[in-house]
């Protein structure tokens, strides 16, 4: 079955699972790349408004066809639709929304996540980095931080005991979704991490498979369920 997990299928599994995290009426900010796929899988009975940090509330699908409006783009520079009820504003207002606790959830990619809920997703030492963007503001201001990423990258483990890349934020990640599983970061009442909890697993993999490709320690939930693939 492993050969059935194409790149496209991996992205679909991850994005579809992330879309289940939203509640009706949520305002959600998506990172660039894989996170933007999430818009395809929001259930039709839920009204979710996607915000882009460059100044759009009400981001829809990527534009297609011949009559593309090049004035409407997301933070990644892709031409996007504006849904009914959308509004536009300047960068200052965008960051007021993000820093002020008005974003219900954010979905971001990652280079590394660790068992403390730390996130590194903006810089690799020695490689060109165009800038950190709004990620640092976003993960601190959003009510829920969801990381979506492939479980490993070119054989390198990404869910580690402790991040060794420059941090985007400390102890802010709530959920980690990969093509193999879903981890929840178990915080106590003082927001101190008690470690990762394996809550869902892709039936194509075993718990031993997860352990072999995860450096961080984790507990298996008593209510472990299978991911939808």
Name the strands of the widest sheet in spatial order.
4-3-2-1-5-8-12-13-14-15
Describe the global form. Answer: globular
| Helix/strand/pairing category | alpha/beta
Strand elements, count: 15
Mean pLDDT across residues: 94
Low-confidence stretches: none
User: Order of helices and strands, N to C?
Assistant: HEEEEHEEEHEEEEEEEHE
Percent of residues in β-strands = 25-35%
Q: What's the gyration radius in Å?
A: 17 Å
Number of helices: 4
Separation, N- and C-terminal Cα atoms: 12 Å
Keywords:
229 residues, alpha/beta, three-stranded mixed beta sheet, 4 helices, 15 strands, 15% helix
Mind explaining what this structure looks like?
The chain is an alpha/beta fold. Helices cover 15% and strands 31% of the residues. It is built from 4 helices and 15 strands. The protein has helices spanning 7-19, 91-99, 135-141, 207-212, and strands at residues 27-30, 49-52, 56-62, 80-88, 105-108, 112-114, 119-120, 145-148, 152-153, 156-157, 159-160, 175-177, 181-187, 193-201, 218-226. The strands form 3 sheets. A 10-stranded mixed beta sheet has the order 4-3-2-1-5-8-12-13-14-15, sandwiched between helices. A hairpin with a 3-residue loop joins β2 (49-52) and β3 (56-62). α2 (91-99) packs parallel to α3 (135-141).
